[in-house]
Each structure stands twice: as C-alpha cells, then as structure tokens.
Amino acid sequence: MRVIYHGLCLNCRGAISDERLLKFGICENCLERVDDLRSWKHVLKALERRGNLRFVDDIFNFYKAFGDLSKFFRKAVGHRMWSLQEVWAKRVLLKRSFSIVAPTGVGKTVFGIVLALHFATNGRRSYILVPTTLLVQQISEKIDAYSERLGICPRKICYHAGLIEKEKKELLEKVANGDFDVLVTTERFLKNHFELLRGKHFDFMFVDDVDSFLRSPRNIDRILEILGFDNATIASAIQLMAFRREAARLKRMGERPSEVLASFESIKSQIENYKAKNNIGLLVVSGATMKAKRTKRIKLFEELLEFQIGFKPELLRNIKDFYLEAKEDVEDQVLSLIKTFGSGCLIFVPSVFGREHALKLGEFLNANGVKANTYAKLNDALLAAFERGEYDALIGVASFRSPLARGGRSSREGSLRYLHWRAEDGDQTKLGGVQPRQAPYTS
Q: pLDDT digit string (tens) for 363-386?
C-alpha cells in the first residue's frame, strides 16, 4: 500500500509518494528516476538538464551556506559549533531575528563575534553591544585572535571608557565616516553618540546581556532605526498593536471588529511592503534571564522583526550544579573546598554581608595559604593576574551589579574551573557551587 503526501515534494511542493520521499524527496513529475543518482549534486544537475529546477535549489544553497559557516566557525574558534550554536546559525542564515535565553558558558558571545566576522568577510556591517567596558576589551581581543586564525583584517572599532581622549576622538571620527566593519561598544555609547550612528545601516546586530539594555524603551527605538526602520514605520507598528487590542476588546463584547480588522490589515500590508523594499538588518539579543516586562516598546520586536523576547532558557551546559549544607564555621569549609578542587575559583558572598565580609574572607584565605583577592570594582590587571594563575580565587558580592558576576569572560581556557557562593535559605545557610565536568571553551 502506497501513501501519497500532498505538498511535500522538495522541488515542486506537489504530491509525492512515500517511496520517493525517502529518495531525496523529489517526486516522479520532477524526476522520473533517481535510483542512479548518488548525491544532491547529481539531483540538481538532473533537474537543471530537464529545466525543472525550482525550490530544491534554495534548500541546497542553504545547507551549502551552513557548511561554509561551520567551517568558518571551526577555523576561528578551534572546534565545531555546539548543537545550540548550530540552531542559532541556521536562524541567521534564514534571515530571522531571534532572542537567546541561556546561562553563561554556552557560547552566546562567541557566536555573536564569529557571526560579525562572517558578515564582515561578505562586506556587511555588524554591531556588538555589551554592558561593560571590560567586555568591550575582551571581545576586542577575541576579534583579533579569531581574525588572525582566519587570515582576515576586518575594520574593527571597539570604543570604551578606558581609551585616552586622543583615541576616543579618532574612533568617533571613524564611526562618523562609517569606516568600520565591526563596531563594539557599551550601551552608553548608543545613548551618548547615537547621532553618529543615525543613517548608518547595520546588517547584523548582536546585543549581549540584553536584560539591562531593555530597561530603557528609547534603546529599542534606536536599535530599530539603525536596523533600517524609519520613524513612520515604527509609529505604524504601535498603531497596529492598538488595533489588535481594540479588535480583541470588541470580540469580548460580542461585537464584530470588521472595520478595525480592515485597518489592521491595511497597516500590516504597509509594514510588509516597507520591509520588502528596504534591507532590514538582523537582530540577535542574548541574556541569561530576560525578565523585562512586555511593554509596548518590547512588543515592537514582534510586530516589526517577528520574534518575541524569549523567557524560556535554552540549556546546554557541561556543568554540575550542587550545594552543601554549611557547617558552623563556613570560612573553614570554603577553605577546605578550595584546597580540594584547587586553583581557579570565584567566591560570592551574600549581598547582605557586603564588601567588608568579602575582604575579611580574603584575609582568612590568604592567611591559610590560598592566594585570594577581592574583586570589588572593574580591575583589568587583577582579572589578568587571575587568568595567569597568580591568584587561586577571586571574591565578590552576590549581586547582578557585581562586576565579578557580570563583567568577566576568561580568555585563558581553564582559568575558571568552579565557583562557590554562600546563600541564606530561611534559617539555613547553604554553600552552593558549579563545576565544569571538563574545562569548556569560555564565552
């Protein structure tokens, strides 16, 4: 008994039998015989000879582009993409904007950097936006390292507060003149120097740690503008949301929203026409939680770029999560854990105890043979010393504002091996920790 599937032929999107679906997915109307064809290249040539090459060429080109990007990534980073990164890469190749909700360590930033370099090799402009100066500096180093491995020389601008005035002036002039392929800045640059970016089109924009970025509705308008949307189209999208709410209200009241829906479809059509006529850039936003409220401005992403700021995390970490019941003397227990696991530790103390407790813990560890220091503010020299192994542990406060929690990405593989924190849970004190099963690449 044969089964016929309608609309599943990869080439003509017509009917196809179950037997032919298993053989390249090309129906008999497109190719009478496929038994003697060994690969997709032979299938494409046979279809081309018959003058019957239609939609399947798009599929072949997509997978070829994905293969090229995979090779590019492997050459830059030194290993193949993880499965999650492959999913993200396919979305980019399909020209879809999207959000990444995933914890630190799964390769979000590495993915954004490599994609920016890939766009640069094709003559297209990218913008990487991060929350701190330290991250700008670390991404700059990664861009240099990846570019050297790839044998390319992209025009890179990495603007941050740590530059001297002369360097800042030179880089601002280059931004104003559009003399760059990859731009890396903090959120403050977007706010203070947006006039320099106005009118400049970006083909790819990667917003890292979007949780803090989305607190300002004006940032969303700025992003949409440099991706290619004008103010009139943004205003139309806001009007579209109003019509959507009004139609829902009328339905709840038992009335027919025909007139509202007609206006809705008209504006929707205008927006789609604008997007078809203009080269709209791709936006990828990443964060660990994305707890931003679904305001009108955030919903603009859904109306204009057809994606929602995600709230469901994508988990793929080679990490163990665990906790221990704390004993009476927590400091001695922390010391024992560090001596058991060795160098490469981050320690977080409860925010209610503050910086003083972190300093006290540092003194205790140093007195007992553990080289520790307190990371209370952004300190490149201290972080570099930790990466070189000059310190066994860095101590910070457990807060999302803590520079140790937000601002560090180790550039030396294996320099960060595990971390501990102390948490108050009702009447109990717990010691928690995460430890990589193997030293993963850092992002």
A: 999 999 999 988 766 677 787 788
**Where in the chain are the domains?**
4-54, 61-228+279-305, 242-276, 319-436
- Which pair of tokens denotes residue 198? 């106005």
CB 93 within 8 A of CB 66: yes
Q: What is the CATH number of domain 61-228+279-305?
A: 3.40.50.300
Helix (H, G, I), strand (E, B) or coil at 360: helix
Amino acid at 364: F
Q: Are 207 and 226 in contact (CB under 8 A)?
A: no
Contact 292, 214 (CB under 8 A): yes
Q: Which of 333, 348, 334, 316 is nearest to 437 (CA)?
A: 316
What pLDDT does 413 receive? 45
- pTM, whole model, 2 decimals? 0.72
Residues 392, 283: Cα–Cα separation, whole Å: 39
The domain at 319-436 falls in which architecture? Answer: 3-Layer(aba) Sandwich (3.40)
Question: In this model, does residue 430 exceed pLDDT 50?
Answer: no
111-114 — which CB contacts under 8 Å span 24+ positions? 111/81, 111/85, 111/443, 112/206, 112/208, 112/284, 112/286, 113/139, 113/142, 113/143, 113/146, 114/72, 114/73, 114/76, 114/77, 114/146
Mean pLDDT of 399-412: 59
CB-based contacts of 29, cutoff 8 Å, min separation 6: 9, 12, 14
pLDDT at 431 > cutoff 60: no
pLDDT of residue 289 exceeding 50 = yes
CA–CA separation, 146 and 150 (whole Å):
6
